[in-house]
Amino acid sequence: MNFYVLTLFPEMIEQGLNTSIIGRALEKGLLSLKTVDIRNFSENKHNRVDDYPYGGGAGMVMAPGPVYRAHQYVEELIRNEKNTAEFTGGINITGHEDINDSNTLKTNTKKTRVIYLTPQGRVFNQTMAEEFAKDEDLIFLCGHYEGIDERILEMIVTDYVSIGDYVLTGGELPSMVMIDAIARLVPGVLNNDVSAEFESFQDNLLEYPQYTRPEVFMERSVPEILLSGHHAKIEEWRKQQSILRTANTRPDLLEKAVLTSKEKKFLHD
Ligand code: 6GU
């Protein structure tokens, strides 16, 4: 899967995502990440990309031109990537079509999603991460200052996304949050391929507590059931813990969870 990020602070994205699990997946080629510095597409001699808002008011607004040209550049990158990748082993005769596995001609019409990070967007959740993870390419547009000229947003943005009800200084951290959540759903990114399926939010329940050695730490023992080797009992205990945790800190989630009548009794035991 390929991530493209349009930003005024490319180093922030690169440094933030080049570590740990995502860094390893980038090294392995399971993912690619390309940042595009919007400032490189300024046609102003001082490389300015922002200007005063029409109608007055505080702060600056990012001008449409540099964003438009940066997006055109990324679209072209993606087009070129497709034409070289898909024709290895075959001959590209026209340059205007894609050849699929059965060697039939098919015009590539699918436009790459452009996700604009903004507190005015839909609030990001696991269901949206799963939807976005189906795409081969994703473009993230990060704004700064008071935002971006509305006209270029109307022209290129397909999805307006927020990461929660608080205000940040720019879209860089939100894009990193989204890329992390989406990337870990790509097959092979997590070394353990069942773990992405069985955890929090899949069933609208929070995760159960985890323990490792030592068995006693500063007089606190690991719950005895976990040492019993009784797998069915352990599963039942973990489910109970999940339900109790969710009831305590996220009653809103618990309303959406589907529980058996036996599991509902856990709440009152
Ligand atoms: Cl996506 N952007 C900014 N600037 N602030 C936010 C946000 C996004 N999501 C929550 N707060």
TrEMBL record:
| EC number of the protein | 2.1.1.228
Q: Name the reaction it catalyses.
A: guanosine(37) in tRNA + S-adenosyl-L-methionine = N(1)-methylguanosine(37) in tRNA + S-adenosyl-L-homocysteine + H(+)
Q: What class of enzyme is it?
A: transferase
| Pfam families on file | tRNA_m1G_MT
InterPro entries, alphabetized: Alpha/beta_knot_MTases, tRNA_m1G_MeTrfase_C_sf, tRNA_m1G_MeTrfase_TrmD, tRNA_m1G_MTases_N, tRNA_MeTrfase_TRMD/TRM10
Residues annotated for S-adenosyl-L-methionine binding in this entry: 143, 163-168
Q: Which residues form the tRNA methyltransferase TRMD/TRM10-type domain?
A: 1-77, 107-256
Task: Tell me the Gene Ontology biological-process terms attached to this UniProt entry.
Answer: tRNA N1-guanine methylation
Annotated keywords: Cytoplasm, Methyltransferase, S-adenosyl-L-methionine, Transferase, tRNA processing
- Compartments, as annotated in UniProt: Cytoplasm
Q: What is a GO molecular function of this protein?
A: tRNA (guanine(37)-N1)-methyltransferase activity
Q: Which GO terms describe its cellular component?
A: cytosol
State the oligomer form and interacting partners: Homodimer.
Function (record text): Specifically methylates guanosine-37 in various tRNAs.
Instruction: State the similarity comment.
Output: Belongs to the RNA methyltransferase TrmD family.
NCBIfam families xrefs = PRK00026.1, trmD
- What is this protein called in UniProt? tRNA (guanine-N(1)-)-methyltransferase
